[in-house]
Amino acid sequence: MARRSDHSKEELKELSILHAYELVEEKGEAGFKARDIAKRMGYTVGTIYYIFGNMENLRFHVYGAILDLFHEEIAKGISNKRNKLNYHIKKYVQFSQDYQNLWLFLYGLDDMTQNDIPDWYLDKIHRFFCMIVEALLPHIKQKRKAPKAAQTILTSIHGMCILSIRGNRVRDGEFNLEAMAKHMITTYLYGLNNS
Questions:
Q1: CATH classification of 62-193, choosing from 1.10.10.10, 3.40.50.170, 3.40.50.300, 1.10.357.10?
Q2: How far apart are CA 184 and CA 182, in angstroms?
Q3: 42 Ramachandran zone, left/alpha/beta (phi>0; psi -120 to 50)
Q4: FRET pair for 145, CA 20 to 30 Å: which of 28, 55, 136, 177?
Q5: At what angle do helices 119-136 and 146-165 cross, to 10 degrees?
Q6: Which residue has better confidence, 106 or 175?
Q7: Could you tell me the pLDDT band of residue 115, with boundaries at 50, 70 and 90?
Q8: What is the pLDDT of residues 125-171, one digit of tens each?
Q9: Whole-prediction pTM value?
């Protein structure tokens, strides 16, 4: 068993986040246990509490790492895309499918108020939301409606991703997530621009 003196506090913090992230990627929410994380690190549970104070602080750092991965995925091909809205939504859908355990963990914010969420984490969320708002602007006539439209689209796509992951299917056949997302956006933007 390693001792705290084997690593600096910053190194312990990074180790904790890394191993928590890996366990969540493997097992989902069930992997986010102090005992399992500490064991994988080669330290005691007390080390995690020494670094983070509580598991919720570590949770937000894992959330942050997941959002960073998502932003990296989006950045891979954005420069050559003409329709950035479709690209962002496609990447969101893909991420939810390719990284299901991480994606579901990311949305495990249960009884938390806005005051419980660290500002640095809210900034990461805001960064993605602003990308969607910016991508919407070429598609809507009334630009002031872009933030509300972005919320509506993201909430709808999120619900579709949840249905897809949870194994729910529509009666008329398989649940084609990407096709439904594209249809919803097209229909919503048509209605928004013609109301």
A1: 1.10.357.10
A2: 5
A3: left
A4: 177
A5: 110
A6: 106
A7: low
A8: 999 899 999 999 999 999 999 999 999 999 999 989 988 887 755 54
A9: 0.85
